[in-house]
Design goal:
The chain is globular. It folds into two domains: 190 residues, Fructose-1,6-Bisphosphatase, subunit A, domain 1 (Fructose-1,6-Bisphosphatase, Chain A, domain 1), CATH 3.30.540; 130 residues, 3-Layer(aba) Sandwich (D-Maltodextrin-Binding Protein, domain 2), CATH 3.40.190. It is of the alpha+beta class. A hairpin with a 4-residue loop joins strand 8 and strand 9. Helix 2 packs antiparallel against helix 3 and helix 4 crosses helix 7. The chain has an eight-stranded mixed β-sheet with strand order 4-3-5-6-7-8-9-10, with helices on both faces. The protein binds 1,6-di-O-phosphono-beta-D-fructofuranose and magnesium ion (2 copies). One magnesium ion binds next to strand 5. It catalyses: beta-D-fructose 1,6-bisphosphate + H2O = beta-D-fructose 6-phosphate + phosphate. Homotetramer.
Length: 336
């Protein structure tokens, strides 16, 4: 069977929907090439010397793994010289990365979580890369890009995607016209289209949450999970299954494949941090993808894509997946 390559898919999208001008296509292809390289490094494991931690911490105060830093470098290097970007921002860097003056500059901003699921690297469980593309402001060509230029609501994203490095390497992508999935053909070295219109079922009986945080949850989250646990004898009238991989990409990918609800809610921990996941590198791109597949994504009550970011590394509560179940969580918040 002759499958479409990523390039063929992007060219077709431009022909039918005019959503992929040449600059965006080249940008996506460059990110996809970088993801292939990261996936290659991941698959080498101990043989490639990529496991384990470094002495450094990132801006979030988390110990960096060797692969966090390597993946960040691969993405920076691949995207610097192509001429499609004005600047980049990453979960692993304190501030934005402007395109050096020796390279041509483009009209887009790229944001990424270079390696998602860092705690799973050394135990050989699926991990991934998440990315988001925004327009640079119109007046940007005449001046330096600032952090504030990145602080656009997720609804402004031009494209978003993730790569998951698991038993297969897959790339899942939206350009605002549905969601497509590509599988890496390792012999050919190409991303080939394997699913054209990913759709998340509206209902589910599978939830994903880190239960060890239960004592910190806000009452509506506690109520919802209590109801799931009560199963067929409780108010929801059916039994629920639970999964928690602890790599957002892998948990979201399961939901993209068979439905479910994923929650990393904001909670009442004394740290005062509003949730664990990052708005710009994790929540926004995933919310865009999930909505494009017919699902929903909230911070608890509000639509994530409507949130006006205040800071590059802002954290946010995340509840996403099957529409009716996410809606139920919103209702519980309203009734609280
Ligand atoms: O270890 P916890 O608290 O369950 O957190 C797991 C969550 O943290 C993350 O690993 C955070 O991402 P990073 O690995 O990019 O920091 C998510 O992928 C995942 O959903
Ligand atoms: Mg992450
Ligand atoms: Mg990360």
């Amino acid at each position: 069977m002759n499958r479409k390559t990523l390039t063929q898919y992007l060219v077709e999208q431009q022909r039918t929907h005019q959503t992929v001008p040449a600059e965006v296509r080249l940008l996506i292809e460059t990110v996809a090439r970088a993801c292939k390289a990261i996936g290659h490094a991941v698959s080498k494991g101990a043989l490639g010397g990529v496991l384990g931690s470094l002495d450094s911490e990132n801006v979030q105060g988390e110990v960096q793994k060797k692969l966090d830093v390597l993946s960040n470098e691969i993405l920076l290097e691949a995207n610097e010289w192509g001429g499609h970007l004005a600047a980049m921002a990453s979960e692993e860097m304190e501030t934005l990365h402007r395109i050096p003056n020796r390279y041509p500059k483009g009209e887009y901003l790229l944001l990424f979580d270079p390696l998602d699921g860092s705690s799973n690297i050394d135990v050989n469980v699926s991990i991934g890369t998440i990315f988001s593309v925004l327009h640079a402001p119109h007046d940007a060509p005449g001046r330096d890009i600032e952090e504030s230029d990145f602080l656009q609501p997720g609804s402004q994203q031009v494209a978003a995607g993730y790569a998951v490095y698991g038993p297969q390497s897959m790339l899942v992508l939206t350009l605002g016209n549905g969601v497509a999935a590509f599988t890496l053909d390792r012999e050919m070295g190409s991303w080939l289209l394997t699913e054209e219109n990913l759709t998340i079922p509206e209902d589910t009986s599978e939830f994903a949450i880190n239960m060890s945080n239960m004592r910190h949850w806000e009452p509506p989250v506690k109520r919802y999970i209590d109801d799931c646990l009560a199963g067929s004898t409780g108010p929801l009238g059916k039994d629920y299954n639970m999964r928690w991989i602890a790599s957002m990409v892998a948990d979201v990918h399961r939901i993209m494949t068979r439905g479910g609800i994923f929650m990393y809610p904001r909670d009442e921990r004394p740290s005062g941090k509003k949730g664990k996941l990052r708005l710009m590198y994790e929540a926004n791109p995933m919310a865009f993808i999930v909505e494009q597949a017919g699902g929903a994504a909230l911070d608890g009550e509000a639509r994530i894509l409507d949130v006006k970011p205040q800071a590059l590394h802002q954290r946010i509560g995340v509840v996403l997946g099957s529409k009716n179940e996410v809606e139920r969580v919103r209702r519980y918040h309203q009734e609280d």
